[in-house]
Write a structure and sequence with these properties.
With 175 residues, the chain is an alpha+beta fold. It is built from four helices and ten strands; from the N terminus they run ααβαβββαββββββ. A hairpin with an 8-residue loop joins strand 6 and strand 7. It comes from Iphiclides podalirius (scarce swallowtail). It holds the Pfam family TPK_catalytic.
């Protein structure tokens, strides 16, 4: 990300009057245009966003996380993270994932994590490293969503999912 900021000219205002997209979505579209025009490849993009307050804004931010991959708002291999004052969230796409948990997070008694289906039901989720692991469990609204889970003290959490899920976790002293 440092390379992107170094390559940008002084700040400029870009008019994006289209009201079919949130400001977050429009920012990603403009970032992608800039990267394509300057042949810049980014591996990770971190958006700083508040995760409390207006539920419509929170849902809009989640929609943008989903659209980023579905509509390729960023490069195909760019991973998008949403960072708030005490948490980080990102989408896990179908497959196997290993998430390394910082020691401070593992030791913090009020740490939490969650797995929530996004865009569709998730037919199967299996985890290890959580206080309440899932074993081939389906996740869907109206049934099970894995909120307010916790870590079991392991250095890593392993997740296997059949469909896209939102992973969120508390990270003390992040900002």
């Amino acid at each position: 990300m440092l390379h992107i900021w170094q390559s940008l000219a002084p700040s400029s205002v870009i008019q994006t009057p289209d009201q079919d997209y949130t400001d977050f979505t429009k920012a990603l579209i403009e970032l992608n245009k800039h990267c394509l025009a300057h042949k810049i490849e980014i591996k990770h993009a971190i958006a700083i966003a508040q995760a409390s307050g207006r539920i419509d804004h929170i849902l809009g931010n989640l929609q943008t996380l989903y659209l980023a991959k579905q509509k390729q708002l960023l490069g195909y291999s760019t991973k998008l993270y949403m960072l708030s004052d005490d948490a980080i969230s990102w989408l896990l796409f179908p497959g196997n994932h290993v998430i390394f948990i910082p020691e401070e997070t593992r030791q913090y008694k009020k740490s939490w994590c969650s797995l929530v289906p996004i865009g569709e039901s998730c037919m199967s989720v299996t985890t290890s490293g959580l206080k309440w692991n899932l074993d081939n469990a389906p996740l869907q609204f109206g049934e099970l969503v894995s909120t307010s889970n916790a870590f079991d003290g392991s250095e890593e959490v392993k997740i296997s999912c059949s469909n896209t899920v939102l992973w969120s976790m508390k990270v003390p002293n992040i900002l």
